[in-house]
Amino acid sequence: MNERKKAEERFAKAFHANPNPMGICRFSDGIMVDVNEAFLKHSGYEKSELLQKSALALNIWVDRHQFARILQTLKTKGRVENEEVLLRNKAGEIRTIIYSAERISISGENFVLFSVTDITERKQKELVMRRLERLSLIGSMAAGIAHEIRNPMTTVRGFLQLNMSKLASERDKEIFRLMIAELDRANEIITNFLALGKDCSLPKQTKNLNQVIMELYPLIQADALNSHMNISLDLGDIAEININENEIKQLILNLVRNGLEAMDQPGEVKIITYMKNNQVILAVRDQGKGIKKEMLYMLGTPFFTTKAEGTGLGLATCYSIADRHNATIEVTSDEQGTTFYVLFPL
Ligand SMILES: Nc1ncnc2c1ncn2[C@@H]1O[C@H](COP(=O)(O)OP(=O)(O)OP(=O)(O)O)[C@@H](O)[C@H]1O
Ligand SMILES: [Mg+2]
């Protein structure tokens, strides 16, 4: 056996046995000529579905511009290293991938040897961690300040109330009432904000989420009617879970209100419950304008709001309530609307 053949065999072995998903495609037209076992496992494709087809034809690349950019770099530099890209697997899921590739020559023809590392889960975890860190940092700083602000506010409110009774004119009284109402509003914001930092668990009861939703329904419906929107329910057969009812009501209300506020034209907010993978899922779906992708990571940050009248505490409260129920929140969103999922483990 000559040296070259031996080297090729060594390469083939390293390629096929490699635990990292890898593949080889022709440089001129992107046609796949080989992929390893790890790649098949990761992408969900059979080998026969991939070979002799181009990645573009297979619709693997989510962003064609990204693909073109990588091709250009390969042309000019001969390699790309650790580029973060979005690839679609066979099931249609979009995965976040670290992509590296190198132009290689086999028997005088140009090929691209590429390898991919899936960081989707890691990125999601990082996102959650960042949110939690932000919450606890902002929380501990602001909790101190919020507490201190309340005392002078209580004093001012007391004096306003005392002096209001001495006023003769109805107009002056109205102004005082307004001042008191504004102080109460500020106080409520502080109360909500302080509740975010609460890490002790409130008393919980075993209850069916559908029942909680039904109790809340009249209130939600009144909200919807006020804004000329519709509410619909699709409540499935779900297991009972351990919840603090008041907190869960607050969570549902905040999500539904966001849904109603997201719709410019009359539309519908749907509350859905079902079981999936041993979890009780609560979904709130709206037909609103959606959330921009670059905003998604900001959701749940206290005081993040895009609304003129918003406080930006609604979702932060939801995340903190979910956290106290060991539940997680997931979001999907496009121009047709947004769905918030709350996943309660059994
Ligand atoms: N269903 C949704 N559709 C579109 N955007 C949403 C939706 N839910 C939340 N958002 C975005 O997230 C931001 C933060 O929401 P959050 O509920 O925390 O605050 P808010 O609704 O602005 O104010 P608050 O709830 O305190 O009155 C909103 O301002 C909005 O931009
Ligand atoms: Mg809100």
TrEMBL record:
It catalyses: ATP + protein L-histidine = ADP + protein N-phospho-L-histidine. Pfam families: HATPase_c, HisKA, PAS_9. Its EC number is 2.7.13.3. Keywords: ATP-binding, Kinase, Nucleotide-binding, Phosphoprotein, Transferase, Two-component regulatory system. Coiled coil: none annotated. InterPro entries: HATPase_C_sf (IPR036890), HATPase_dom (IPR003594), His_kinase_dom (IPR005467), HisK_dim/P_dom (IPR003661), HisK_dim/P_sf (IPR036097), PAS (IPR000014), PAS-like_dom_sf (IPR035965), Sig_transdc_His_kin-like_C (IPR004358). PROSITE patterns: HIS_KIN. The keyword Endoplasmic reticulum does not apply. Residues 144-346 form the Histidine kinase domain. It is an enzyme of class 2 (transferase). It comes from the Bacteria. CDD domains: HisKA (cd00082), PAS (cd00130). The keyword Transferase applies. GO terms for molecular function: ATP binding; phosphorelay sensor kinase activity. This is histidine kinase. It comes from Desulforamulus ferrireducens.
